[in-house]
Structures are given as structure tokens and as C-alpha cells.
Amino acid sequence: MKTSLxxxxxxxxxxxxxxxxxxxxxxxxxxxxxxxxxxxxRVYSSGVxxxxxxxxxxxxxxxxxxxxxxxxxxxxxx
Length: 78
Known about the structure:
Blueprint: H1 7-21, H2 30-45, H3 51-66
Helix pairs in contact: 1-2, 1-3, 2-3
């Protein structure tokens, strides 16, 4: 597993993280943000190296783990 990212890789991973963390359903706590960053990095490290694929691969788990309690299941990303 790589231990560092070059500028383009960082931009990709950070961009997907921002899309998830800024979603209206995301419960923005410090812990959730850290765990979401770990999720994106883990999925990226598994070989998903394009924005659409990385977002798609992270979206469902992120929603399950970091969704605000007030959001109902019907609002889950598809």
C-alpha cells in the first residue's frame, strides 16, 4: 500500500472526500470527517483511481456510517 500521494492523487482523494462531507445528509463532526477521509483513502488504495468510481465505491458506506439521524432511508443515495 502506498504511504503518500502525489499532487494529482491528493486532488482526486480530497475532491471525493469534499463531495461526501458536503452532502446534505453528512453529519459533520470531527470524528466523521476523519473516518470518511480514511474510507476514501482505503478505497483509493484498493485500486479505484478515478473520481466517478471512487465516489461510487464510497457513497453507500459513507451514507450508512455518517448520515444525520434526521435523514430518512428514502433519502439514501442510489
